[in-house]
Amino acid sequence: MAGSPAEPWALGLGFRPVRSIVIQVLAVADADRTSWEAAPAPGYRLERWRDTAPERLVDSYATARGAIHDAPLEDSEFGNRRFQTSTGRGTPT
């Protein structure tokens, strides 16, 4: 919101910033593909599939996806959604 046209509007209504988010984008088409040849770190492996994730990976994905919600929310009333495989293969609930 900072620096956008929404900022003066929100401030004028009495809102105030309580959380900042940085969005990062990797333009895959522009990436240096030679750097993709790196071996995975010890203890890790690369997986590749098409369509839905293999069942053997779904639980660990849901755990990892839920773990990224550790950013401080300060005094925001925002709440993170939990990921659970029991509600549809890692769908946010």
Automatic annotation (TrEMBL):
Q: Where is the composition biased (Polar residues)?
A: 82-93
- UniProt superkingdom: Bacteria
Which residue ranges does the record annotate as region Disordered? 73-93
Q: Which Gene3D superfamilies match?
A: 3.40.630.30
Q: Under which name does UniProt file this protein?
A: Uncharacterized protein
Organism taxonomic ancestry: Bacteria, Bacillati, Actinomycetota, Actinomycetes, Pseudonocardiales
